[in-house]
Amino acid sequence: MGLQSTSSIALSGMQAAMQRLGSASHNVANLGTDGFRREIASAQTQPGGGVFVTLSTAAEAGNALADDVVAQRVALYEFKANMQTFKTEQEMLGSLLDLRA
Known about the structure:
about 100 residues; alpha+beta; two-stranded antiparallel ribbon; about 15% strand; cell projection; Flagellar basal body rod protein; cilium; flagellum
């Protein structure tokens, strides 16, 4: 498999960040639910570039509010960083096209 484009890699990073944010938000929303088992989001790199997230359920019931709040902030920063990468690649492509025209 060949390398993916920078924009494809950045898009997969944004999708992964959204999944991680959704998982952490789900955990916070269910803090008071008796017997609730947290979702755990794990990111893995893809061959050739990019990332994907797998969700699993914690073995035991309970919450980890601090972990989930931090995970939400990290997911936000991950999304912003990947968005900036995507925007930069698009700007560079536009500049290249301007030079070639």
